[in-house]
Write a sequence for this structure.
């Protein structure tokens, strides 16, 4: 897609199940990243339970673990160019059986990105709060999660973390959705991906404002997005956490 094309996907914000989904930008121009280390998560240290954003094992299935001011919900989003995705966008997100290390469930999206049109993309993610609002993550230094790609899937995924300067709800951006993030090349097996907030960057060439760093005092959520035209995707995510405990 054009690096300067914007697209907004409206979603519901029902108290019971859905969160606002927005997409845009590209997942390819910054180059793929390997899992990074240098923090407690990658060193094997177990942070307190309140650092866990979601382990996908809760009874409500599509809601984050309700703690530390977080109570948001998972969702999917996609373009209007013919891309397909399951779970379907605009419906209650359902976790899939087959989580990390034999756990019950994981977040899972599969489908195919349209081969024509602009922009083309699909993704899954969550808002930190419901109703959607800015979340103060200044107590943490970054995020970690496990992820993998299923058989026949593209392995190119962009992690996006909308903040007050990139999400329209922040009422700051005039060219929105160029969220701070990182391009990832997944493998066929579960792997831990750990990123400090300082590892994240906006994509070059578009978006306003362009900021030197993410504002971790006002974050809106996390998203995993694919946008390789014509490519099938089968993406799994589990055990999403904040990092940075003493």
């Amino acid at each position: 897609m054009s690096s300067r094309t914007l697209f907004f996907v409206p979603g519901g914000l029902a108290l019971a199940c859905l969160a606002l989904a927005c997409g845009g930008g590209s997942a390819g121009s910054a180059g793929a990243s390997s899992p990074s280390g240098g923090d407690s998560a990658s060193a094997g240290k177990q942070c307190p339970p309140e650092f866990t954003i979601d382990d996908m094992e809760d009874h409500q299935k599509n809601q984050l673990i309700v703690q530390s001011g977080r109570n948001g919900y998972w969702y999917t989003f996609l373009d209007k160019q013919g891309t397909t995705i399951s779970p379907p966008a605009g419906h209650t997100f359902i976790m899939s059986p087959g989580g990390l290390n034999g756990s019950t469930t994981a977040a899972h999206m599969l489908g195919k990105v349209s081969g024509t049109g602009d922009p083309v993309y699909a993704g899954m993610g969550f808002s930190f709060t419901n109703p959607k609002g800015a979340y103060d993550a200044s107590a943490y230094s970054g995020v970690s999660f496990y992820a993998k790609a299923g058989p026949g899937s593209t392995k190119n995924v962009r992690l996006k973390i909308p903040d007050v300067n990139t999400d329209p709800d922040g009422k700051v951006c005039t060219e929105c959705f160029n969220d701070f993030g990182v391009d990832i090349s997944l493998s066929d097996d579960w792997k831990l991906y750990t990123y400090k907030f300082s590892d994240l960057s906006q994509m070059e060439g578009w978006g306003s404002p362009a900021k030197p760093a993410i504002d971790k005092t006002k974050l809106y959520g996390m998203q995993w997005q694919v946008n390789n035209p014509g490519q099938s995707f089968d993406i799994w995510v589990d055990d999403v956490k904040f990092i940075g405990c003493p």
